[in-house]
Amino acid sequence: MVNYAYTLLIPLIPLAVFLFLGLTGHKYKPIVSGIIGTLGLGIGAILSYATAISYFFVNHVDGTKLESIKAFEIPWLHITENLTISLGSLIDPISVMMLVVITTVSLMVHIYSIGYMKGEKGYHRFFAFLSLFTFSMLGLVMATNIFQMYIFWELVGLSSYLLIGFYYTKPSAVAASKKAFIVTRFADLGFLIGILMLSFFTQTFDFQTLTNPNGPAIANNYGTGFMGLSLITWALLFIFMGGAGKSAMFPLHIWLPDAMEGPTPVSALIHAATMVVAGVYLVARLFPVYALTGGDALHVVAWVGGFSSLFAAVIACTQTDIKRVLAYSTMSQIGYMMLALGVSGYGGHDGLGFMAANFHLFTHAMFKALLFLGAGAVIHAVHSNEMGDMGGLRKYLPITHITFLIACLTIAGVPPFSGFWSKDEILVAAWHHDKVLFIIEFLVAGLTAFYMFRLYYNIFWNKDTHYHHTPHESPLVMTIPLMILAFGAVVSGFLPFHKMVTSDGMAIESHIDFAVAIPSVLIGLIGIAVATVMYRKPGSLPDKIAGTFKNFYKWAYHKFYMDEVYLFVTKKIIFRYISAPLAWFDRHVVDASMNGIANTVDATSKSVRGFQSGRIQQYGYVFVVGAILLVLLFIYIF
Amino acid sequence: MVFNDFLTMRHELILVCMILLVLIIDLCVSKANKTVMIPVAISLFLIHTIIGFLPAQSGVLFGGAYHSEPLTVLMKNILNIGVVIVLLQSAAWLQKEENREKISEFFMIMWATLTGMYFMISSGDFLMLYLGLELATIPMATLAAYVHHQTKSAEAGVKFILSSALSSGILLFGLSMIYGTCGSMYFDTIQTAYGNAPLQVLAFLFFFSGMAFKISLVPFHLWTADVYEGAPVNVTSYFSVISKGASAFILIIVLYTVFHSIAYLWKDVLYIISIITMVVGNLFALRQQNLKRFLAFSSIAQAGFLLLGLLGANEVGMTATIYFVLVYIFSNLGAFGVVSAIHAKTGKENISDYNGLYKTNPLLSLLMMLSMFSLAGIPPVAGFFGKFFLFTSAASAGYYWLVFIAVLNATISLYYYLMVVKAMFINKNDNPIPYFKSDAYTRVGLICAALGIFVIGFWSQIYEIITSLAFGVIK
Q1: What are the percentages of helix, strand and coil residues in chain A, rounded to 5?
Q2: Which of the two residues, A328 and A511, has the higher pLDDT score?
Q3: CA A95, CA A89: separation in Å to the nearest integer?
Q4: Looking at per-residue confidence, does A545 or B305 come out higher?
Q5: What was the ipTM of the complex prediction?
Q6: For B317-352, what is each residue's pLDDT tens digit?
Q7: What end-to-end distance do the CA atoms of chain A give, in Å?
Q8: Which residues of B touch A (CB under 8 A)?
């Protein structure tokens, strides 16, 4: 067995960088912190690639199972005889894949930020937080047990809070960071309940034991527990709630669009490639448990994913803030991944969906990071997020234009770009499992192509906007990451994922199913064509169509009033009928009694002050009396 | 005695040699160069500490009067680490003009008391215990009166020697009755012979009062505040951390071994005393303005918490208590380190002097905050785990009410610990203590304390080591 203990360095280097920059960063020139952060991540990325190559290719014999290896583990807290919280690093196909994804995207974002954040206040703070975030995310994917994952899960929540609220003087950024934190934290409550339930029944936190098909989670039949579902299913549903919160699945998605208040590189890192796929990763990590305990929970995962992807795609068609379009597109794509997991079975070719979900996670990370960074370059050039302020930019930003176009073609599923391959696998998996879900995803594929090209044309074609300052292409330090990611977006579809990441570690057969591929490419092309007609040149057609579906358009534009629903429920119902009476009780009963106790304590402490007189005779007296009292008490009374 | 027997009691022997070495070296050093003694003494003690960690052999000497086993070695090592930190933190103060002449005395006296504590920990009969006790107490009074030209310091010395004479008298009275009823001074014999005859209960209670004096349990605590305030900061630190820690260790051993047969009795005693101690300690701590007095009462309250652990089931309770002492040593050393660093530079030691400290000395404030958090038991620092295990231990033995009262007291204590934090971070001050750079000794001392506060909390092996050793002791 190969010793992978060195993988421990991959998260520890960013941690060291975070501590170093956080404590001493302000002493150096800003650029130094950027370079230190980037170098740290660079080493991490190289180690990740080395791990991946060693794990998947060098030390793996074709046709054998990809084992899951505990590279390192120390027990941290013994809770009961059986239940121990450990800290360690787990090496298996999905964690190695995630290592590559996270370090790659994070490295690109680091390099890009050196240029993008130039001149910003708090430059070193930004890089310190980026490193903290990367550390948390790496710790999350390498966790050997579900509790360690939870610890890092919360760290991810915290560091994303810090990054979204990076512009802490801007009220909207502060509000957005709070919203993201509270919503995901609420979801994490479910996650914690799920963990406690699962560990209560199985007496373990360890992933290897949990996901072992003959292990306690799967082999023991816990029967029907509550409301017709087994208790394990309930635990899994609660855990999925945590995953849905981080991955912005309906109805816990409301934080994602607001979180675009953070600096654009942050959006690329957090909301494209890493944090939002944590939910997918969580389900994938526990996949054998989900798949082999009845599959009820998996059914929920599939439908939540399917619905979210459609819901987000419709909203994305109507948004005018380019980052929000991308945010909804992220939500939609993650819905795809969830759906793919949901329709998957365990082992062999049944596990196609599992493979497809991870495959899409990988390719999506590349092209979505590219889209966000491209959008960042555009915003950098025109100083606005609104589509209305853009147009005709292809002349000014040639490199951004080409890379953005590649990303759009990729996400639209045009062969031979990577998005085509991974999306096709998902559609095939859905087709074999549930025709309704397939049709939803099929429609979403068309919508995706449409709104992406609507975005593309509005930025780079359409009207020739007159700009105050002539927009200019970003510096090399920003365009090189774009080019690297574009390369990744093109070629990552050719990776032999079916041999690398499968539900049971065994390679599966994979081929193009033309009955699915041809229609899905066609609907993508139709979407692109419609967008071309409507948005390539300025015209009244889009407004006319919007007018025809006036009400529906308005609903979608306002994100189906989800924020308002939440506000109504929280402000009008929870605050007024639950919180207000509680607050009254708190002020008049709890606080009053506490104040009473505090006053009593205060008064008592004043009155006993006399004991401490400073006179040694009295001290001796008290001593002797104390001893005698004790004697009397214990000899005569007890 | 053969050579191997010497190895068994190497802690005591080496320390005595060190004292003699310091005495000899001091004679060779000219009056102008006395400060050289500081690095010499500290390095000598460091060597002693390191040797202490080498594998030791267990054994019984002097016909059972002295015994050494892994747990006693561990206790001595814990004390050694604490003393290293105390010494490091004292360096700046010792270098002052008025103390230069008697630097070596400081080390020799302190180590003499430490030798006494070693003997107490390792004692196998009450005679040895009593000898150790006096060896640990009498030089301590001279330490308290170290700055003899200051009335406060002299007063502290006198108060301490008088109070401890009284407590020793009562303890000795108790011991004589123990001998009278059991006919032996040896722990092993007494252990089997002890019952609940009134005279034996009386004897135990007198003995307990004497020990309670050392750990400053209420109502035997009144000397604490005056002595702590009057003695020099570093001596106070030694008093409250090392001396108290050692006495707690000894109480643990004696209660669990010698008085094992009347556990039901001493558990009731501890129950009552722990409640009174927590409550009184807290009530007085609320009102203190002087940081040394404040820490004195805080340490009284902490001693009340400590008793909770002893009430738990045997091994669990023992482990929890030793662990708590370990955590307490580091947390208190962190706090005293900051107080002594600031006192050495500015002479200030009131809480209100610390207003706005964060603005001028952020690192010191952070360490002080950590120590306060640890003393208050706020996660994730070590103090949280210390209290957590104590409460678990008491709760698992069924003392729910006691745990409840302890939790209430922990809440009250939070108030005054946070007062210090508030003073440093929130309160405004027009002329706060200006920024200063501590010398290398102080800094190393502070860093050690800070590391301890973190590492002990996170490194669970420490707890397991103590557990494994605790199982060996209880018969």
Answers
A1: 75, 5, 20
A2: A328
A3: 9
A4: B305
A5: 0.82
A6: 888 888 899 999 999 999 999 998 888 888 888 888
A7: 66
A8: 158-159, 162-163, 166-167, 170, 198, 201-202, 205-206, 208-209, 213, 218-220, 222-223, 225-226, 265, 268-269, 272, 280, 283-284, 286-287, 412, 458, 460, 464
